[in-house]
Amino acid sequence: MYKVERKTIIESVKGMLLESVKTLDKEVLDAFENARENERNPLAKNILDKILENHEIANSKDIPLCQDTGIVVCFLEIGRELYFDYDLDEAINVGVSQAYIEGYLRKSIVRHPLNRINTMDNTPAVIHHEFIPGNKLIIHIAPKGGGSENMSTLKMLSPSEGREGLIQFVLDTITKGGGRPCPPLIVGVGIGGNFEKCAWLAKKAILRPLGDVTENPVDRELEIELMERINKLDVGPMGLGGDATCIGVKVNSFPCHIASLPVAVNLQCHSARKSEVTLIGKEINHTNN
Amino acid sequence: MEKKLTTPITDEQIRTLKVGDEVLISGYIYTGRDAAHKNMIETIKKNEPLPFDVKDQVIYYVGPTPAKEDQIIGSCGPTSSYRMDKYSPYLMEKGLKVMIGKGDRSIEFNDVVKKYQGLYLLAIGGIGAKLSQCVVENTLIAYPELQSEAIRRLKVIDFPAIVAIDFEGNSIFTK
Fold first, then answer.
1. Which of A63, A104, A118, A120 to mutate to probe the B interface, most B CBs <10 Å?
2. Which of A 196-235 lie inside 8 A of B, CB atoms?
3. Is the pLDDT reported for residue A174 higher than 90?
4. Catalytic-labelled residue, pool B37, B97, B102, B105
5. Does A68 contact B63 at a Cβ distance shorter than 8 Å?
6. Are A57 and A63 in contact (CB under 8 A)?
7. Residues B157, B169 contacting (CB under 8 angstroms)
């Protein structure tokens, strides 16, 4: 059996959050630079300039890229050979709490959706768990903004609506969202499973690396076609028109019921903050127990 | 070329601005988003005084990150404006002239802006680090219990925005 120390998890979560709120992945920045080069709408080009300039200021002055430092979403891939003698979710939340309090990040979480009393440390995080072979713990983490989350959609399509119906639903989501989700977007699409599974797939999709190519040929073709058609919608940066409506489309699929065609569209704003870490478990010496 | 807009706002300034114009705002503006609006509208309905006189003023829909010791304000970009649509008419009735936020508003809101001869301005979302550099003063004036959603008076210099709904009710989103 192997173990990852509670302290290591707290420190990792805290560190990833503090870094991710002010730094985007290089491939995301490259995509914005590329979009700026190719943008034909002058106002859109100007906005892309400001997005890139904002990143420089955030980095050099240690200020969060966006005031909405999000609700923390965490996907855990837990090695089956790992042993936990503490509450893993609690450790994640301690890391979140420390990051938001010590890092001067905005606390945006309310205890109950109707009472709306702030929890004061941005906990709890939304945590998903999966098992993987081996002795590693992989933590994917994202401080996810509320604006783009609010414009995300889910629909149980009829199988007869098929591929084109699904594409239209995604395009409608982007069009109706307009500037509200802060485009240029990364669009996560979950297809199949059931009601909650497709939402989970869509969320997981936006956490894939921007350059990641899915192995499933059906999903791959869909990603390419959606990317092309979304960028012809003329939604543009902040919804004011332009070529750059999205910098990536990620599709994840899962088997589903003969009666169903569930689809979920999770939108990631241009402040596409995320991070991941792989922690290797240390072998536990049984003779000392 | 950007046009200068100085607070408090006059009708003359508003009438020179058309949809799509880029403006640079200087002077005092007030922060307020969902929870502060809810409080203010309850106050108006009870016929009690607002925490500040909104006449000829600007409200910026923002909930900044906390300032560190050596900072005036943290990251401070706009939040989505549509959530304030049902509150704003009450404040415009009291003389509020300008709102700054991001994204479109309800179609009916074009007529609200026209009725009160105001302006709705767009700030670019997700560039809160850059926008923080325009803020030179930051004073908490109401609802401290709302934390990031409290009302603050900010002094800004050349804060960039785009006219999204002008005094004639023309909208950048329904062009």
1. A63
2. none
3. yes
4. B37
5. yes
6. yes
7. no
Written as one string, the DSSP assignment of chain B is -PEEEESSP-HHHHHT--TT-EEEEEEEEEE--HHHHHHHHHHHHTTPPPSS--TT-EEE---PPPPPTT-S----PPPBSGGGTTTHHHHHHTT--EEEEBS---TTHHHHHHHTT-EEEE--TT-HHHHHTTEEEEEEEE-GGGGGGSEEEEEEEEEEEEEEE-TT--BTT--
Average pLDDT over residues A178-196: 98
Residue A37 burial (CB count, 10 A): 9
Q: Is the pLDDT of residue A289 over 80?
A: no
Mean pLDDT computed over A210-219: 96
For residue A61, list chain B residues with Cβ-Cβ distance below 8 A: 129
In a domain, B74, yes or no: yes
Local confidence band at A286 (pLDDT 50, 70, 90 cut-offs): low
Tell whether the model's pLDDT for residue A195 goes beyond 60. yes
How many domains does chain B divide into? 1
A64 at the B interface (CB within 8 A)? yes
| Residue B66 counted as domain residue | yes
pTM: 0.95
Structural domain span for residue B71: 3-165
Q: Is residue B146 part of a domain?
A: yes
From chain A, pick out residues whose CB is under 8 angstroms from the CB of B35.
116
B75 noted as active-site residue: no
- The CATH number of the domain where B53 resides is what? 3.20.130.10
A15 has a pLDDT exceeding 60: yes
**Is residue B30 situated within a structural domain?**
yes
What pLDDT, in 10s, does the model give residues B129-143? 999 999 999 999 999
Answer yes or no: do A63 and B75 touch at CB < 8 A.
yes
ipTM of model:
0.94
Token duo for residue B25: 């705002």
> How does pLDDT run across B56-92, given as a tens digit for each residue?
999 999 999 999 999 999 999 999 999 999 999 999 9
pLDDT digits (tens, 9 = 90+) for A38-83: 999 999 999 999 999 999 999 999 999 999 999 999 999 999 999 9
